[in-house]
Design brief:
The complex is a heterodimer of chains A (227) and B (273).
Chain A: H1 3-25, E1 45-48, E2 68-70, H2 73-80, E3 84-88, E4 96-101, E5 119-122, E6 133-137, E7 141-142, E8 160-165, E9 170-182, H3 188-191, E10 199-210, E11 215-226
Parallel strand pairs in A: 4-5, 6-10
Antiparallel strand pairs in A: 3-4, 3-8, 5-6, 8-9, 9-11, 10-11
Chain B: H1 4-23, E1 32-39, E2 46-50, E3 53-59, E4 63-65, E5 68-71, E6 73-81, E7 92-98, E8 103-110, E9 116-122, E10 133-139, E11 146-150, E12 153-159, E13 164-169, E14 172-180, E15 188-195, E16 200-206, E17 215-221, E18 235-236, H2 244-272
Parallel strand pairs in B: 1-8, 10-16
Antiparallel strand pairs in B: 1-5, 2-3, 2-6, 6-7, 8-9, 10-13, 11-12, 11-14, 14-15, 16-17
Classes of the chains: A alpha+beta (227), B alpha+beta (273).
């Protein structure tokens, strides 16, 4: 192999590794021991307890009592029916349809629908009524079209945002803050929080628009809390 | 071109690419694992301990716990009928092993001897494709092999105790039915199961075929917070100035329209002549 071919091979390997790293970034909870691929799998490791068990892990705290929820099909249907389907931000939009979307497995970005008319809900996170942040985003503009979040930056503090779930229930959130943040410096842990106090987080683009990259430099982030 | 230039170019690109490797968020591996417990034994309300510490009191059937973060490794899981002395004989007395970073569910079901038994299932593999939704079926029942379908698709050709099968589907509501893998009528009527994007739904087959008590318990699994988007790109093209589009259309479109109209009239006159 010539030196240049070796270098190209090394580059390909490195890029492949980089791709793996990026892909792994969104699935860091996969066990390192090589989980079974989709399809039939065997169970995890279970064995009858020995006469004198000797756990290798550190002992649990004494207050480790766990909560539990119903696991019936009815409970599942009720849970899934809480997915948001409409959102109204007063002074910003008329009721806008909401669509369940996820993290793009290739780019790692929020996979938004095409067009500015629909709002994306990060379906892997919290739904209304859950702990953590219900995160919704929409394009500020899309090929010259405006949408429900085009004027999001102008939402007044205290405005009450109404989210309607698929089961018809409504959830009201009061706007607490509006801020701009560089896209490259988003606090993902806080923005997509899946535990802690309930909140609604609305995101669109803002700040300077770069015509060369066809991209805005910042995100507009509106945070609201249940009322 | 000399051999040096491509090599230098590649080296430069390598230098650019290497930070990408380092930029990947840290794995959730560490030394912890996450354990959830699903209860699939009807008639057993249990007190459950892990490593000698009571973690569930009065744990009723057909319930699922909050996830528990614990050190990876070997753990001792025991259960007694609720209120019974924990010095007495346990109805469950097993060791379970969790790998570092593993997200797992311990399912309490019944074995071929109709006694409670725990099976640990790995949950991490259910969320490998965030663009679709996983429907998983897991066996916790004392039953012959079962064929499970979701609409016109097969989830499992032969679901047995301790086994798991997974089907990637598009979000929607699917009628899930169970029939003996060897053939025959459905043993549980088809039931609608809703699936939302980005979340996995796990159905545990529980009960006893001999007692005609087969049924499902359900669990939703969401990705770890590390699966949150890296970016939110919410602008394609600049925001149009209010009225700008209309003004532009008038400025450019009106003369073009008038010219076209004039040309059409000239053509009609020439045809009439």
């Amino acid at each position: 192999m010539t030196p240049s071919r070796r270098a190209l091979a090394a580059l390909a390997l490195t890029l492949a590794c980089a791709g793996c790293g990026q892909a792994g970034a969104s699935r860091a909870d996969a066990p390192p021991t090589g989980p079974a691929s989709p399809g039939s799998t065997s169970p995890g490791s279970v064995s009858p307890a020995p006469a004198s068990p000797s756990p290798s892990a550190s002992p649990l705290p004494a207050d480790a009592l766990l909560g539990s929820q119903p696991a019936t099909l009815d409970a599942l249907r009720a849970e899934q029916a809480l997915r948001p389907v409409w959102i109204l931000v007063p002074g910003v939009n008329t009721p806008a349809p909401v669509e369940a979307r996820t993290t793009d497995p290739v780019t790692g970005g929020f996979d938004l629908p095409q067009g500015a008319a629909r709002v994306a809900w990060w379906a892997s996170g919290a739904a209304p009524g859950d702990a953590g942040s219900v995160v919704m985003a929409a394009h500020v503009s899309y090929d010259g079209q405006t949408g429900p979040f085009t004027r999001l930056a102008s939402v007044a503090p205290g405005s009450v945002v109404v989210v309607t779930s698929a089961d018809g229930s409504t959830h009201r959130y009061a706007v607490r803050s509006t801020r701009n943040a560089p896209k490259t410096a988003l606090d993902r842990g806080e923005l997509f929080r899946t535990t802690g106090p309930a909140a609604l987080v609305l995101v669109t683009c803002g700040g300077p628009y770069d015509r060369a990259t066809h991209s805005f430099a910042e995100n507009v982030v509106v945070t609201a809390t249940p009322v | 071109m000399s051999r040096t230039l491509p090599a230098l170019l590649c080296a430069g690109l390598l230098a650019l690419a290497l930070p990408l490797v380092g930029a990947a968020p840290a794995s959730a591996a560490g030394t912890d694992a996450t354990l959830t417990v699903v209860h699939g034994v009807r008639g057993l309300v249990a007190d459950v301990s892990l490593d000698g510490v009571l973690v569930l009191s009065g744990f009723a059937p057909e319930r699922v716990t909050d996830p528990l973060t614990i050190a990876a490794g070997v753990h001792h899981l025991q259960a007694w009928p609720s209120g019974a002395s924990q010095t007495g004989e346990a109805v469950i007395d097993q060791q379970i092993t969790l790998a570092p970073g593993q997200k797992a569910t311990a399912g309490i079901g019944i074995g071929a001897d109709n006694k409670p038994v725990v099976t640990v299932f790995d949950d991490g593999s259910l969320l490998t494709d965030s663009g679709s939704t996983a429907l998983a079926v897991r066996g916790l029942a004392n039953a012959a092999p079962m064929r499970v379908t979701a609409g016109d698709r097969t989830v499992s050709e032969s679901l047995t105790a301790t086994k798991q099968d997974v089907l990637q589907v598009t979000p929607g509501t699917y009628p899930v039915a169970i029939a003996p893998a060897a053939g025959g009528a459905a043993v549980v009527p088809a039931q609608d199961v809703p699936l939302v994007a980005g979340r996995a739904v796990v159905l545990y087959l529980i009960g006893s075929q001999a007692d005609n008590t087969l049924g499902w318990v359900a669990q939703t699994i969401r990705p770890a917070s590390s699966a949150a988007p890296l970016r939110v790109d919410t602008g394609v093209g600049p925001v149009p100035v209010a009225g700008g589009t209309t003004t532009t259309a008038l400025v450019l479109g009106l003369p073009v329209g008038l010219l076209a109209l004039a040309a059409l009239r000239r053509r009609r006159r020439s045809l009439a002549a």
